[in-house]
Design brief:
- This is Integral membrane protein.
- Keywords: Membrane, Transmembrane, Transmembrane helix.
- It contains 6 helices and no strands.
- The protein is an all-alpha fold.
- It has one domain.
- Helix 1 runs parallel beside helix 5 and helix 3 packs antiparallel against helix 4.
Length: 158
């Protein structure tokens, strides 16, 4: 169990939720300033609602993404939901792995983690920037190509 101070834990959880949503937006190609602001506020709401179980954040992220796609009448809503689930699974696994190793390397056994505890949110942010660059360069073009072909599925069967 990683013990952080309250501000560190809040920033870390908020960044995890916000980064998941932004990576999903990069994969699907629906990203602009207005959407970023809406996602920022939705991330704050998801984090500020007190839960006894922290794992309820991720179904709320899925519901937020589904409602947003539904409101804007996205044509491939089922395809986007599958992409959202895959994005959440991959990003949560990567951030948990990064948090675990950063905690083991820098924080384990330390008594005062008030300053070093900021390493975890910074590591998550750096990891998200790297994944975002990889998504923009490699994954998003393939997803767009498949999204276009889903509307006309004949080439997919050849």
């Amino acid at each position: 169990m990683i013990d952080l101070t309250l501000p560190q834990a809040f920033v870390s959880d908020f960044l995890n939720v916000f980064e998941l949503i932004i990576i999903y937006r990069l994969v699907t190609g629906y990203l602009n300033r207005k959407i970023i602001l809406v996602d920022f506020l939705a991330s704050l709401v998801i984090i500020c609602v007190p839960f006894l179980e922290g794992s309820l954040e991720f179904p709320l992220i899925m519901i937020h993404l589904w409602l947003f796609d539904r409101k804007h009448d996205r044509p491939q809503i089922i395809h986007n939901n599958i992409i959202a689930m895959c994005t959440i699974i991959v990003m949560i696994s990567l951030t948990d792995l990064g948090d675990h190793y950063m905690y083991e390397i820098f924080l384990e056994g330390r008594k005062n983690i008030s300053l070093l505890g900021w390493i975890l949110p910074i590591t998550d942010l750096i990891l998200t920037v790297i994944v975002g660059i990889l998504v923009i360069l490699f994954i998003a073009p393939k997803v767009r190509e498949v999204s276009i072909q889903i509307l006309n599925p004949v080439p997919l069967w050849k």
